[in-house]
Amino acid sequence: MDKTAKDIIAILAEDSRASAAKIAVMLGITEQQAAEKVRQLEDSGVIVKYTAIVNEDALDDESVEALIEVKVTPQRGSGFDAIAQEIAEHDEVKNLYLMSGAYDLAVIVAGKSLKSISRFVSERISTYDNVLSTATHFILKKYKVEGALMKKCADTNRLSVQP
Is 92 helix (H, G, I), strand (E, B) or coil? Predict the structure, then answer.
C-alpha cells in the first residue's frame, strides 16, 4: 500500500465525511486521484464501512449494550473462525473479536433491554455446542468511543447522593 492510500485512510478514519476535494487539498493531489484511490480502497475491502459515532446519552432512545466473554472449543480445520462466523451473523452482534487470555471471543451486543440481552445469551450464544461458558458485562456508560470523547449531555437526570 502506498503512502497516499495510507494518508487517505488516516483522513477518513478521523473524518469519514471528508470529501474527495478536501482529501485532494490535504494531500496535494487532484480530486479525481483522491476519488479513484478511495474507490480502490473500498473495492479491495480495505475500507469496509463509513459510520457515525453517536453519543447515545444524548438520545431519548433506551437501549443496552453488553460485552459478552465467550469461551469456546475450537473446531478441527477452522479453529475459532467457524463459531465466530456463526455468532457474528446475529443482528444483535455489533462487534466480535478473537482474544488472548481467559476467554476466546469478545462479543459486543446491543438490545432493547437487559432482559433481551440476557435472553440472547441464554437462548442463542450458550446453545452452540462449541460454547463452554459465557460471562456478560453490561456497559453502563461510555466515556470514549473510537477515539472520540463522549461529551456530557446538558440534561442529565442524576440523583443527588447528598442529603
Answer: coil
Distance CA 110, CA 7 (A): 33
Whole-structure pTM value: 0.76
Nearest to 67 by CA among 146, 142, 160: 142
Q: How many CA atoms lie within 13 A of 79 on its CB side?
A: 5
CB 78 within 8 A of CB 107: no
Given the DSSP bridges, would you call strands 144-145 and 148-149 parallel, antiparallel or unpaired? antiparallel
Backbone angles phi, psi at 4, to 5 degrees: -60, -45
CA–CA dist 133, 127 (Å, integer):
10
Which residue(s) pair with 95 in the sheet? Answer: 108
**pLDDT for 96:** 98
Poorest-pLDDT segment among 100-114, 120-134, 148-162:
148-162
The answer to whether 93 and 109 are in contact (CB under 8 A) is: yes
